[in-house]
Design brief:
The structure holds two protein chains of two kinds.
Chain A lengths: L1 H20 L28 E6 L10 E3 L2 E5 L5 E7 L10 E5 L6 E8 L2 E2 L5 E6 L11 E5 L9 E2 L3 E8 L1
Antiparallel strand pairs in A: 1-3, 2-9, 4-8, 4-11, 5-6, 5-10, 6-7, 6-9
Chain B lengths: L1 H27 L32 E6 L2 E5 L4 E7 L7 E7 L5 E4 L8 E6 L7 E13 L6 E14 L1
Parallel strand pairs in B: 2-8
Antiparallel strand pairs in B: 3-6, 4-5, 4-7, 7-8
Classes of the chains: A mainly beta, B alpha+beta.
């Protein structure tokens, strides 16, 4: 009988040791408790509030303009907001023109303009505007790439268009 | 007596192993870190290739996630974010954060389609304050990692809280 008690005591000690080794979660008090003090690490995150879709590349036909399609596939901005898309200043050269550069000879370029509603697009000109969380733009005229001169030599010419996106609160 | 000694030693060893396992789980965590060191490719489980989208040459669409505002904690390099490159994007993305004066405070490595970044290390820690026209720049590259594609700049309000 005495032997059994000792065995039970030994098993109980082992159980206590095993339970004590398990990790325990600690919960912070939410702040309104009076008479408590302490510190906690706070992390801040912000989820994306909208998604604008741009073309990864645009092919310009031999005789004609290249068309740039911009759409909004997600907009959680809500009322009192304007989501604006414009062409970023990085797109343009120092003279305000957009250039396509020959991939095998950088000295060979084609001068182009970006056209919206039959007017030449300057940097920061708004070309799409989504109001109050809408997915349809108030401005829907096509944005075009138009060559103003012919290619100086045969080859492949490339350029990069950057879009600037911002939100204004009305 | 001998039996008790064996039980005691056994239980002590078991408890020790459990403590070590607990410490390892606590320090390393159960999930991996998703910090993107500069100039490294952040891999995704399944990289989408341009040809998979039926659009040879990567002439598809690029989804640009936009932020109206972002909040950082002042005085620390590590910040929590929700940056991602959509799985449908047939391109790598490099994300850069610029303050309104143009100074660069963060630049990611090449982020693969489907990859997400939940934590970043700033190159420069901005002082506490409100930066109303901070910029998150997206530079996009074809899946060859060389050919540059069209990109975007997202203006947002950066709050750096003390």
């Amino acid at each position: 009988m005495k032997k059994n008690r000792k065995r039970i005591a030994a098993v109980a000690v082992v159980l206590c040791l095993v339970i004590a080794a398990f990790p325990v979660s600690a919960f912070a008090v939410t702040g309104d408790e009076s008479g408590t003090s302490g510190s906690t690490t706070v992390t801040y995150t912000a989820s994306p509030t909208y998604t604008i879709e741009i073309p990864s590349s645009i092919t310009i036909p031999a005789n004609g303009d290249g068309q740039i399609s911009i759409t909004c596939s997600e907009n959680n901005l809500g009322s009192g907001t304007l989501l604006n898309v414009s062409v970023d200043t990085r797109t343009f050269g120092n003279d305000g023109n957009f250039y396509l550069v020959n991939t095998s000879d950088e000295s060979q370029v084609i001068k182009c303009v970006l056209s919206f509603n039959d007017t030449i697009v300057a940097a920061q000109r708004v070309i799409r505007q989504y109001r109050n969380g809408a997915l349809t733009s108030d401005l829907d005229a096509p944005l075009l790439i138009r060559r103003t001169e012919n290619a100086p030599a045969a080859g492949t010419y490339t350029g990069t268009i950057y879009f600037s996106i911002d939100v204004t609160h009305t | 007596m001998k039996k008790y000694a064996i039980v005691g030693i056994g239980s002590a060893l078991l408890a020790g192993l459990l403590v070590i396992a607990g410490v390892l789980i606590g320090t390393r965590g159960l999930g991996g870190s998703s910090v993107a060191p500069a100039a490294e490719v952040v891999p995704a489980a399944d990289v989408v290739r341009a040809e998979d989208l039926g659009e040879p040459g990567g002439s598809g669409r690029i989804k640009i996630p936009g932020f109206d505002s972002m909040t950082f904690k002042a005085g620390q390099r590590q910040q929590a974010v929700e940056f991602s490159n959509a799985e449908e994007n047939a391109c790598y993305m490099v994300m850069t954060i610029l303050l309104p004066d143009g100074s660069e405070i963060y630049r990611s490595g090449m982020i693969a389609p489907g990859a997400e970044i939940s934590s970043i290390f700033l190159d420069q820690i901005p002082p506490a304050g409100s930066y109303s026209s901070a910029v998150l720049q997206y530079e996009c590259f074809d899946l060859d990692g060389v050919t540059q594609l069209n990109g975007a700049s997202v203006k947002f309000n950066l709050e750096v809280l003390p």
